[in-house]
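Researcher: Here's the sequence for the chain we discussed earlier.
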Amino acid sequence: MNTKPGPRGPNPDDCELCAADRFTHWYYEDEHCWVADCEVCAVPMVVWNDHGTEPTDEAVEHMMAKLNKAAAGRFGDVGWKIDRTMRQVPEHFHAHARDADWWGQRFRRPMSKYTGVGGERHEHGNPIGT
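Model: Thanks. This is the structure I predict for it:
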């Protein structure tokens, strides 16, 4: 487990990714990870179920496959890439699938809403922050 303090501390009890609150669309979930729309940037992200920053190579391969599948379903086969930089929660492994204009769209595109794991993605009527 990573014990380097971050903005939320090293304790899994204080980690928002460990909490895994279900506000946005969830594409996938299993015993290793979950894939959902990020509350901050509204793009698919995969989150490791274990608190820490160093999953095994096999776990990373599994998580990237699930994220790639969600991203392809959302954005199509091209025009997006995987971003593994853990900016806001650096003490818990996660990665995003970002489309080409994710930064420009993050406050303009409507946020998705949780309706269960998998299934059709639904959006709220208003863009994020409005």
